[in-house]
Amino acid sequence: MKKNILFFLAVLCTSIACVEENPDVPFGVDAGNIEVGPAGCVRKVTVSSSDKWTAMVQEPWITVSPSNGIGTIECEIIIDSALAVTSRTGVVRINNLSTSDHEEFTITQKGFDYSISLKEQKVEIAEYDDYDKRSFDVLVNANVDFNVVIPEEARNWLQYDKEELRLDRGARPRNTVVHFDWKVNTRDVKRNAVISFEPVDDVELGRNDMLEVSQKASVSIPANTVQGDSLALIAIRRAMNAWDEYEVAERMEHWEGVSVWKSGPNKGRVRSAEFFLFDTKEPLPYEVQYLTAAEELYFYSNSNSFLKDLDPGEYITTLTGLKRLTIGAYGLTSLPDSFRNLSNLEYLDLSSNNFQEIPDILTPENFPSLHALHLNTNTRRTIYDLKNTTYDDYGGLIDETPADAQGERSFPRRILEWKQLDTIRLSVNYLHGEIPDMEDYPEKWTAEEVHASDTLPDILIGLPKVLPDTDYFAINLNRLYGRLPEWLLYHPKLDLWIPFSLVFLQEGKTVDGVSAGFSNEPPSLDYYYEHYTNKFYNPKNLKEE
After folding, report:
1. What DSSP assignment string belongs to 449-491?
2. Residue 394 contacts residue 380 (beta carbons within 8 Å)
3. Of 253, 316, 308, whose CA–CA distance to 278 is shortest?
4. Which residues contact 241 (CB under 8 A, 6 or more apart)?
5. How many CB atoms lie within 10 A of CB 450?
6. How many CB atoms within 10 Å of residue 502?
7. Average pLDDT over every residue of 142-150
8. Rounded to whole angstroms, what are the CA distances from 237 to 260, 465, 468?
9. Under a CB-based contact definition with an 8 Å cutoff, are residues 350 and 372 in contact?
10. Closest among 70, 74, 73, 75 to 97, alpha carbons compared
11. Coil, strand or helix: which one is 294?
């Protein structure tokens, strides 16, 4: 018992000693006024007290955690990011609940400056890459809408597309992406562009970054040389994503689809080249312009060409020495004005493209040497009944035969007047209407020229002298109708045209609902050979066995 009493007294004395050594903590806060930036932050403040206390703040952008307590506690002052360009102020008040004493301190937050800033301010791109890889994105942080300004001298190789900048948080900057597309550098010098971002509204910017874009120089291709031709061929196939590659270990003259000059000033250089089976969404590559010794170039079979709307571009039009050119199944819908530079062409094949009409630039005046024109199968899709279709962009030269004031349509007369053409292919298109009778055509077959020939019959005298030197005339599988004119029925070369297959044969219905086909199509060519009695193909001239 005595021991227990002594232990109790010892504990009591210890407690009294502790109280005396830890007197009441003075009420207070270890913070003065606080200034913060617009992005917001968290500050730590210690509340000293022996009693209960609570924090009071009337601004929603300031939070005290914890907001109340007993005794000394470290608190976090959480300050949200600003929403305006002007500064704002809030007061935090700490109340002692036992004594009604309080401490206050002020928080001042600076507003956001108007700004346009970039995550990356320098971009370097290659001189060449695959079509779908020729782009880059730039992350822009801004609190004001802006325009992207590309220097005029760089607009031919840089384009952009900007996402909408959603300024839904006041002046708080938001991120957006500007997408840039670039083109191949065709020169052996580096290209540079400084792109600016200018605010739409008249505001003063605290920060305004610019973007520096540099593009590597192209590999130099020596002009008018065998080496330059070989480099150009390889680059063209690369640019067009051709399905196969040259055997570069072999001499160029042994490459598939390539022939070279065997003698003369261009000996060893490319005379002709073929590019077959490729996938491009662009005009012909710039390297084409280096094939200055070529007489013939052949480009055929672009992937999904019926979906594309292209023109051949300007580079091919610099090859004024070309005599034969094929750009087929490429996806062409137009020709540039500079195409007239190819005035030495003798053969032009633009078949299996997507032309809505025969390009206006194709005239005998622009191409005085042209004798073969192929514009067949320019249909994007096969439509039997053109009146009952929802499609309106189906090619087939459909716009070449518009209706006149009376609703009549006719075959393009300008082709029939191109008399130096010996080959015309317009098959498998959507040409509409009747074939003109050409009665007003100034050139007529005369008695003198008919009687001077052993094969021309008198029935020709006075008929329009249309396409007298044309050996191949194919207009089958269009939407032509009406009567066949006499100039065609008695044409001196009608039998060579294989008329029942390549002339008379039509199909489908027109946009007006008219069934294609000629009302006076002959059942045979007997009527023809009755007049052309000296023709080899006249059955009456064949010897019976």
Report:
1. HHHTSSS--GGGTTSB--STT-SEEE--SSEEEEPPPHHHHT-
2. yes
3. 308
4. 130, 131, 278, 279, 280
5. 18
6. 16
7. 93
8. 18, 46, 41
9. no
10. 70
11. coil
The pLDDT-based confidence of 523 (bands split at 50, 70, 90) is very high
Which residue's structure tokens are 């490319």? 270
Does pLDDT of 370 surpass 90? yes
Cβ-contact 142, 174 below 8 angstroms: yes
Radius of gyration of the chain measured on its C-alpha atoms? 42
398-436: b or e for each residue (b if 16 or more CB lie within 10 Å)? bebbeeeeeeebbbbeebbbbeebbbbbbbbbbbbbbbb
Question: What is the spatial order of strands in the sheet that 73-79 belongs to?
Answer: 28-29, 41-48, 73-79, 62-65
Residue bearing tokens 């270890």: 30
**Cβ atoms within 10 A of the Cβ of 519, count?**
9
Pairing of strands 102-109, 88-96: antiparallel
Residues 215-244 have a mean pLDDT of 91
Half-sphere exposure of 538 (CA within 13 A, CB side): 14
**Phi, psi (degrees; rounded to nearest 5) at 497:** -80, 0
Confidence bin at 331 (pLDDT 50/70/90): very high
Distance in Å from the first CA to the final CA of the chain: 157
Residue 82 one-letter amino acid = A
**Tokens representing 174?**
């938001």
**Cα 499–505–506 angle (5° rounding)?**
145
The torsion of the CA quartet 383, 385, 387, 389, rounded to 10 degrees, works out to: -40
511 close to 356: Cβ distance less than 8 angstroms: no
Q: Which of 103, 98, 109, 93 has the alpha carbon at shortest distance from 38?
A: 109
Scanning the structure block, which residue is given the tokens 């045209």? 497
Q: How far is the C-alpha of 494 from the C-alpha of 257, rounded, in Å? A: 35
Determine the Cα–Cα distance for residues 186 and 310; give it in Å rounded to an integer. 20
